[in-house]
Write a structure and sequence with these properties.
The chain is an all-alpha fold and about 325 residues long. Helix content is about 65%, strand content about 0%. It starts with a helix and ends with a helix. Keywords: Plasmid.
Length: about 325
């Protein structure tokens, strides 16, 4: 996002044509036209739910262009928790006029590809009937070259976002969709219908009882192999699951796998058991190498320290060393 200073400079440049263009002085939409304009804008940009404006989404879009600091400097802070917030009011039925700054902030945030004059022209051209038929005033009717560019831009966006819905929900896509809906609705509707993504068939339901039985057999085979080996990491529940073909899926759905859960509770290795196994492994190794047994040597070979050894492992160590 631009700095606060840059945001305010850009806003000033955006508004400048209002002061310079003679045409701007002639454009003065009625309160009814403003109401229809903002209703249609929210609908076109997907900022509605049923017939209601999603004011939270509107505020989010505005904040993507203007920081809270910039809005506060303009004395137009968004008090979203208040029903009297100016941004909420501008998308409701207009009973009073709003300032040119309030209008311009919304247009620059939601319609960045339209000039301030074009936005005024569109609002001025609206009638009660146009909310359904949506005619476009001749003064802003795009030429065929403009339409061709917009068509290509929309096609590229749909490809980029891998779907029409995702493209519409993007900031640039929402604006472009609104523009095409106003200026070339027939093409937009036809093209979108031709490029709707096919609904994927629902994934088959998983038979968790069967998966539970298969998985527990796999686990028991793994545990049986481990019985004859002292040289492996600590056999925690997560480590045991990772040794199975579908370990990640099993871990995520353990609440549906009662046999697997019971097996893990029974056979997963505690810290005490793991330390005793390491001491046993160290003892066998030192014996095989015919090295004199010493307490410190057993601990070092088992990579244990006096500080970390558990009471149960300590008793086992004393028993092993004491027998020697």
């Amino acid at each position: 996002m631009l700095t606060t200073s840059s945001q305010l400079t850009a806003l000033a440049a955006y508004i400048a044509p209002l002061l310079d263009a003679p045409r701007a002085q002639e454009l003065s939409p009625s309160l009814e036209q403003w109401t229809l304009f903002y209703q249609r804008l929210a609908q076109d940009l997907g900022l509605t739910k049923s017939k209601h404006i999603r004011h939270d989404l509107v505020a989010e879009r505005v904040r993507q262009t203007f920081s809270d600091e910039a809005l506060e400097k303009l004395d137009l802070k968004l008090a979203e928790n208040k029903d009297t917030c100016w941004l909420k009011s501008i998308f409701r039925k207009h009973r009073k006029a709003f300032s040119y700054l309030q209008h311009s902030i919304v247009w620059q945030a939601l319609l960045p590809k339209l000039t301030v004059i074009e936005a005024l022209q569109q609002a001025s051209a609206l009638t009660e009937h146009s909310i359904t038929t949506r005619p476009v005033s001749q003064s802003v009717q795009p030429n065929s070259e403009d339409l061709s560019v917009k068509h290509k831009d929309w096609q590229q966006l749909v490809h980029k976002y891998q779907g029409i819905k995702a493209a519409r929900q993007s900031l640039e896509g929402g604006v472009l969709y609104a523009w095409l809906y106003r200026h070339d609705r027939d093409w937009l509707v036809h093209w979108n219908q031709q490029h709707q993504q096919e609904r994927l068939a629902p994934a088959p339901r998983v038979d968790w009882n069967q998966r539970d039985r298969i998985a527990v057999r796999q686990l028991l085979r793994i545990i049986k192999r481990l019985d004859s080996s002292l040289d492996h990491p600590r056999a925690t529940s997560s480590w045991l699951l990772k040794q199975t073909p579908n370990g990640t899926s099993l871990a995520k759905n353990l609440q549906k796998l009662s046999l697997v859960a019971l097996c893990l509770k029974r056979y997963s290795e505690s810290v005490e058991d793991y330390q005793i196994r390491r001491i046993s492994q160290a003892f066998i190794k030192l014996k095989q190498e015919d090295v004199e047994l010493r307490r410190w040597r057993l601990l070092r070979s088992a990579t244990l320290s006096k500080e970390r050894i558990t009471e149960e492992a300590q008793r086992f160590l004393e028993m092993v060393y004491g027998e020697e």
